[in-house]
Design brief:
Layout (H helix, E strand, L loop, with lengths): L7 H4 L7 H6 L9 E5 L6 E7 L3 E2 L4 E2 L5 H4 L22 H6 L9 H4 L4 H4 L9 E2 L12 E4 L1
Parallel strand pairs: 2-5
Antiparallel strand pairs: 1-2, 2-6, 3-4
Length: about 150
């Protein structure tokens, strides 16, 4: 009888994962790469549909992942140590879910095997994003999509 092997994200902590395992957690929604605006009155954070200049609008993936922090210095690299402070991460984000000891959703590609399931489930903003290169910063407020 064959042993049942749990997927790595069910038995490893985020800190125990290899870099390959860590990177595979990203569902490709692109939400973390959208510009966010803070309400100065109450501190609420809002996502816009304005994407980082490196986000490929056709795939919702970074077009230069390995060099992103050199090109966009304010790009935040997710690590096991900084996840608790990144409260703006989407509630659907695998890194956030696992940090909060919650399961991955059924549409996550590691669960269902389909990298496009995130888009089919309506989680990503694929086909609803604009590049920050095409929208003046003073117009970002006109492109709010949801509250963090």
């Amino acid at each position: 009888m064959a042993a049942i092997v749990k997927p790595f994200w069910q038995y490893k902590t985020l800190a125990q994962m290899t870099s390959e395992e860590w990177d595979s957690l990203c569902d490709g929604c692109g939400l973390c790469c959208l510009q966010k605006l803070e309400d100065q009155d109450d501190g609420s954070l809002y996502y816009t549909r304005i994407a980082c200049k490196l986000l490929d609008l056709g795939t919702a993936r970074c077009s230069d992942y390995s060099n992103r922090q050199n090109i966009v210095p304010e790009c935040i690299a997710l690590t096991p140590d900084n996840l608790a402070a990144l409260t703006w991460l989407p509630k659907t984000c695998a890194y956030r879910l696992l940090h909060e000891k919650k399961p991955l959703p059924a549409w996550h590609h590691l669960v269902c095997g389909d990298v496009n399931a995130v888009h089919a489930a309506g989680i990503s903003q694929l086909d609803n994003m604009l590049s920050e290169l095409d929208v003046a910063e003073e117009d970002w407020e006109k492109n709010l999509i949801f509250r963090a």
